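Lab notebook, bench 4. The sequencing result for the construct came back, and we need a structural model before the next group meeting so we can plan mutations. Quick request posted to the team channel:

Model the 3D structure of this chain.
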Amino acid sequence: MSTIPSSSKVWFITGGSRGFGAEIARAALARGDRVVATARKPESIEAELGRHDNLLAVALDVNDEAQASAAVDAAITRFGRIDVLVNNAGYGLLGAVEEAGAQEVERQFATNVFGLLKVTRAVLPHMRRERKGHVINISSVGGYAAYPGWGVYGATKFAVEGLSEAMSRELEPLGVHATVVEPGFFRTDFLDPTSLFKVAHEIADYAPTVGEMRSRMAGANHQQPGDPKKLAQALLVLADAKQPPVRLPLGSDTVARILEKNRFVEGELETWRAVAVSTNHDDVAV
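Done. Here's the predicted structure in C-alpha cell form:
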C-alpha cells in the first residue's frame, strides 16, 4: 500500500475505458490524483489512457458482485483508500415501453441499477470506516424527465435518482456524500451500437412518437451539444466541494428540461389540488 497525500484524491471509476469514464479519469490523472479505472477488458483502459504510475486498471463486470469486491480490494491494496466513487458504467435501450421484451428490460436494470448497487455496496464499508468519501452516480436528463422511446432506460435512471437521494441522507451523518449527476446529450459514443441497444421488436403504432425519436437519434450521433471534457472538469469541481449538491444537472439542455418539467408538475398539481387533498380523513386539516 502506498502513502497518498491527503490533498490528492483516489478515484474509483466504473466504465473507465471510454466516454465519460475515460474523460474523468484523464482529468483526475492530469491534476495528480490517483485513479482506479474499471472495465470488462482492463487492457482497453491502458489503450485509452496509457500507462501511468497513478493509474490502476482493473477488470470489472458490474453485474458480478464477487468481481466488484475484488476490484475494490485491489484499489485499497494499491492506494489505501477510495475518496470518490463514480458509478458511470451503463448503456442505453431505445424503444417504446411496450416494445421492450422482458430480457431486454432485465438486462438494462441488471447493469444500470443492480450493477451500480453491487459496486456501491463494495465501496461504502471503506468510506464509512474513514468517515469520508463521495459517491457520484451518473444518471441522465432522462432520469429526471421522461422521453418517448427512452422509458425503460429512463426508468433505470429514475431508480438511480431515488437511490442517490436516499443515500445522501443516510450517509451525511457518516461524513460521506452522495450526488446524482444528470448529463444531457453529450458528444460521446453513447449513440453508437456499442453503447446503445435498440429493441428487437418495433410496433408501427408508435411511429409518430418513438419512431420520430429513433430518427432523431440516428442523426444526432456526435452532434450533441455537450462537451465530455468540460463534464470531466465539472466532476473535479464537484469532487472538491465541501458541501456538494444532491443533484448536479450538466448541460444547458438538461437545465431547460428540468425547468420545463418543474413548471408542468406545478401546473398539474394546482389543477388537481382539490382532488389530491380530498382523500384525507375528515379529522385531518387540509
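The first helix runs from residue 19 to 30.
Will bring this to the meeting.
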